[in-house]
Write a structure and sequence with these properties.
The chain has 304 residues and is α/β, with parallel strands linked by helices. The protein has helices at 14-23, 47-54, 65-74, 91-94, 117-123, 159-182, 216-225, 289-295, and strands at 3-8, 25-30, 35-37, 42-44, 59-60, 79-83, 101-105, 113-114, 128-135, 145-152, 198-199, 232-236, 239-249, 257-261, 264-268, 273-281, 287-288, 301-302. The strands form four sheets. Strands 5-2-1-6-7-9-10 form a seven-stranded mixed β-sheet, sandwiched between helices. Strands 12, 13, 14, 15, 16, 17 and 18 form a seven-stranded antiparallel β-sheet that branches. A two-stranded antiparallel ribbon has the order 3-4. A hairpin with a 5-residue loop joins strand 16 (273-281) and strand 17. The longest helix has 24 residues, at 159-182. The protein is elongated. The protein starts with a strand and ends with a strand.
């Protein structure tokens, strides 16, 4: 049986790990170190670690490149499979597995190479994305692709939901195509460099929306794209307000102002309006936009 190393960290990696266990002997799971969360700074393990522990797989969480290299080399893998691991694989490590590294990427390469392909696809208004299985090389998602599957982006789907669907597709695709690739029955195809686009890492500042400058369409896309992280946000009464759900609606509402209109919270934008469905004031949990407006006693809110 194929001897494999799996490298992944978030929830999006878990279905891929499960699928790999069905077609390979997973000798080692490599994931990022536990992270401090919340006010108590309690260390929380990444989802891939929790999934590996449940089925008794060996786990390492290296904090340096040398530690990572030694851990992978020690198990002498036939192949290493990477799904959202979260750090660059250096050339010396790429050469360790007999069949190299396979990367599970959540886009149809060469579109959206990089750290945030799902976010970028939604922000751009793409109607389709997908999963690509790629042979890793020294570039950033530049290696040849040996399998892919397209996935339609649903109209109100956010990054969290879409990533979950893509992860399930990725698991099925890997289970079906990894063995044929390793057996030489699939030929990796070089990517078309002329069609490449970059999916840069997301920043909190980028998630800021200003209804006086942004269109209704772009605001709704931002709300979807930045959910669950970092959350689209604006400023109301000098404090940050996150917007978790919103839809475009016909209205001639005042630009930059949210008010109740026939029971709905409607925010005027540069070219139209959006209905706010779920928001989160600073220091409070997410809530329905109507409850937020009721807390303001119906007083209109100016966004900036």
């Amino acid at each position: 049986m194929i001897r494999a190393v799996f490298m992944g960290t978030p929830f999006a990696a878990v279905p891929v790990l499960a699928a790999l266990r069905g077609v390979a002997d997973v000798a080692l799971v490599v994931t990022r170190p536990d992270r401090a969360r919340g006010r108590s700074s309690r260390l929380v393990p990444p989802p891939a670690k929790e999934a590996a522990l449940e089925v008794g797989l060996a786990i390492v969480q290296p904090s340096s490149g040398i530690e990572l290299f030694e851990a992978v080399a020690a198990v002498e893998p036939d192949v290493a499979v990477v799904a959202a691991y979260g750090r660059i694989i250096k050339p010396d490590l790429l050469a360790v597995p007999r069949h190299g590294f396979v990367n599970v990427h959540y886009s149809l390469l060469p579109r959206w190479r990089g750290a945030s392909p799902v976010v970028r696809a939604i922000l751009a208004g793409d109607e389709t994305t997908g999963v690509s299985l790629m042979v890793m090389d020294e570039g950033l998602d530049t290696g040849p692709v040996f399998a892919s599957e397209a996935v339609a982006i649903l109209a109100e789907e956010d990054t969290g939901v879409l990533t979950g669907r893509l992860a399930e597709v990725a698991g099925r695709l890997l289970a079906a195509e990894l063995s044929p690739y390793l057996e030489g029955r699939l030929t990796p195809v070089p990517q078309d460099e002329s069609q490449a686009t970059a999916a840069a890492k997301v920043s909190t500042e980028e998630a800021y929306v200003d209804p006086t400058r942004h269109t209704a369409v772009s605001i709704v896309r931002a709300v979807r794209a930045f959910n669950p992280r970092p959350g689209a946000w604006s400023i109301v009464d000098g404090h940050r307000l996150k917007i978790w759900k919103a839809i475009e609606v016909p209205s001639d509402s005042e630009v930059g102002v949210a008010r109740l209109e026939e029971g709905s919270v409607v925010l005027g934008t540069r070219d139209g309006a959006v209905e706010l469905l779920e928001v989160q004031p600073a220091g409070k949990p997410p809530m329905e936009a109507g409850a937020w407006m009721n807390g303001r006693r119906g007083i209109a809110a100016a966004f900036s």
